[in-house]
Amino acid sequence: MIVKVLNNWYSGSNKLERLWLLAKIEFKLRYYENKLGVFWALLKPIMDIGIYYIVFQVIMKQDVPAFASYLFIGLIIFNFFIESTSGTIQILNTKKYLYEYSNMNKLEIYMSTLLSNVIGFSFNILMFLLYYNFIEPQSLGSNVESLWMFPIFINVFILSLGVSLILSNIFVIAKDINQIWQVFATCLFFLSPVFYKLSSFKEALPNFDYANPIAGIIINARRVMMQGIQPDFELMFFDFGYALSFLFIGLILLNKLGSKAAEKL
């Protein structure tokens, strides 16, 4: 069943070229009517960092070394996950014309949407590297361990795709999943070490970094990007396990519910 879904997506020509074209169009349309255009893709995380920095470093005094960079890497990973999942809940409805009146596979539509978020994520990672290496006064600098960020990002991409498939297919039969996910996403944000000191997070929620894949991904991203050490491989194993499990469930739902989406929506 799962192999059939993947084979249907892969069959045909120019898949990657079409995916990239759709991703670029999606990214540009997102900011088309804004005066600042795609600059908002960079401006929003910077504004978020400013707000959280004032609240948690100036007012609450978290006492985290290189706190602005600590916030930066946590926010861009969490925001990628939330934008990729929340933005695709109604995708089978809003982009019904693509799979009804063209030869596009449904999975291809998901992939192109997530790839458009990858473009914004790439801008943010570049900004982080520039800030951390040239502006951050407490920077240790980047080294070869930073290359571990590639498999870490693949982890969060697979996780986002899996959760997107699950949520959007549940939406076919239960529209209130949108509101439920908004509440859950808020809880997930405050139960992840985005702005908390890691020691405080682990003390308050022992072993919760193994139960929350986003927490584990953020922790490992900071290890390789800011501390210059290898990721926690046990934690990474758990995170990839979550991601692949969600993807497996999502593909099953896409095969079962997604095939009837055009009739039900």
TrEMBL record:
<keyword id="KW-0812">Transmembrane</keyword>
<dbReference type="GO" id="GO:0015920">
    <property type="term" value="P:lipopolysaccharide transport"/>
</dbReference>
<dbReference type="Pfam" id="PF01061">
    <property type="entry name" value="ABC2_membrane"/>
</dbReference>
<dbReference type="GO" id="GO:0005886">
    <property type="term" value="C:plasma membrane"/>
</dbReference>
<keyword id="KW-0813">Transport</keyword>
<dbReference type="InterPro" id="IPR047817">
    <property type="entry name" value="ABC2_TM_bact-type"/>
</dbReference>
<feature type="transmembrane region" description="Helical">
    <location>
        <begin position="152"/>
        <end position="173"/>
    </location>
</feature>
<feature type="transmembrane region" description="Helical">
    <location>
        <begin position="109"/>
        <end position="132"/>
    </location>
</feature>
<keyword id="KW-0997">Cell inner membrane</keyword>
<keyword id="KW-0472">Membrane</keyword>
<keyword id="KW-1003">Cell membrane</keyword>
<feature type="domain" description="ABC transmembrane type-2">
    <location>
        <begin position="36"/>
        <end position="257"/>
    </location>
</feature>
<comment type="similarity">
    <text>Belongs to the ABC-2 integral membrane protein family.</text>
</comment>
<dbReference type="GO" id="GO:0140359">
    <property type="term" value="F:ABC-type transporter activity"/>
</dbReference>
<feature type="transmembrane region" description="Helical">
    <location>
        <begin position="36"/>
        <end position="55"/>
    </location>
</feature>
<dbReference type="InterPro" id="IPR013525">
    <property type="entry name" value="ABC2_TM"/>
</dbReference>
<keyword id="KW-1133">Transmembrane helix</keyword>
<feature type="transmembrane region" description="Helical">
    <location>
        <begin position="235"/>
        <end position="254"/>
    </location>
</feature>
<feature type="transmembrane region" description="Helical">
    <location>
        <begin position="180"/>
        <end position="198"/>
    </location>
</feature>
<protein>
    <recommendedName>
        <fullName>Transport permease protein</fullName>
    </recommendedName>
</protein>
<feature type="transmembrane region" description="Helical">
    <location>
        <begin position="67"/>
        <end position="89"/>
    </location>
</feature>
